[in-house]
User: What shape does this take?
Amino acid sequence: MTFWSIVAELGEGFLVSCEIFFITLIIALPLGLAISFGSMARWKPVRAVIKTIVWIVRGTPLMLQIMIIYYAPGLLFNVRGINNFPAVIIAFGINYACYFSEIYRGGIESISKGQYEAGQVLGMTKGQIFFRVVLLQVIKRILPPMSNEIMTLVKDTSLARIISVIELLFVAETFTLRGIIWPLFFTAVFYLAFIGILTIVFGRLEKKLNYFKV
Amino acid sequence: MKKLVALVCSLVLLVSGMALFAGCNEIGIPDEEGYTIKIGYTEYEPMNYYDDDGNFVGFDTEFAIKLCTDLGYKYEFVLLNNWATKVVDLNGGTIDLIWNGMTITPDLQESILISTPYLTNQQVLIAKSDVLSQYSTLEDLLNATVIAVETGSAAETLVKAIEGMPESKVRPVQSQARALMEVGSNQADVAVIDYTMAISMTGEGTNYTDVGWKDVGFEEEQYGIGARKSDAAFMEKLNAKIAEYQESGYLTELYNKYFVTEEEGTTNS
Assistant: This one.
């Protein structure tokens, strides 16, 4: 096997990693916002339920959550459970939404009351105040912690291999079976490149939001 | 001042770095007695596992302990977190031997040194008991939707070699135990695992009472012990011992202990 044919195979695995990454973000970013609203709800039972869910999800390893979603239905109810790729997406989506929700909550609660009051004075509705006045300020403030979490997601995609989703690290590990060891370490190049791009993107975003001084 | 701090820091780094290297011994099994041989294994019945009383037993466990002791070495069992990276562990010095019901394959023979075969094995099919009758030949595997196999195992190679087998049907999982779990949780219709494992982990009296196994005609294969290519001298001693045990009937004794089910008194192999 030549160097490039192995890199090409690793690239295929990397595409799967990217799929997990982007689909998870598409699910978790809005879901996280919804959960953050739940955790700030005025009605106590809602708050209690959401906080319990967040506690469970943040309190157990993501790897375990993946295995539970994948194996539990079949083992407990003797039915054919969720396929491996959707199972990974569900686990990642819920897990990251919970982490995001706390970041959103921190951001939303940090916005001063004066912003809401100003909106009220201008006769805006609650929804208008949130989406037109508050949200953009929140996004600016949570960008650094969010970028942290999103970079962690890039590397967490490697957990999907435990239920045989053939992502980058899985492909690399199969090479080691044939005695070809270097691809395992070469995977770092893919992760580093991806994180490098993300770093640039987030840096630009932060700059763009810079005009927005509060 | 800053320069002084930097100088001291780099000195500390240098010294600790050298200490680290000095702490590393050369990788390899020395010819002297008393060396502790690190034996890499994954836990699975009946090769290396814990019995109901928590004792570490199994065919390979007993075999390895006897052989190391007879050669005058100490031993230590090192649990591999992943069977797939066993060669990395071996060459990296985390372990000295791979001794865990390892099927001898041409690929492996190229990258590591393998002992003479000490046990004959066969790949068998496992499935939920109520559907087991649907499978009797290799071609019947084509009717399954998902077939779980241990990644990098002989089973994976054999299943993929079945004529007309689409790769999308073959699901490579981390271990044989996982393949069994795939069947147990209905995530896979069938799995292909070692006969030696199937007989002790499926059916009555096991955790998988509703799973059964069947010989669907896979070719027989051989188990061997893996070592680094640089440990050829040790491998010679090891092979001599295997020959001795085969002669003395010790290996047959072990086989009867771990593979012959008490109720039936015979096996299908």
Observations:
- DSSP finds nine helices and twelve strands in chain B.
- The radius of gyration of chain B is 22 Å.
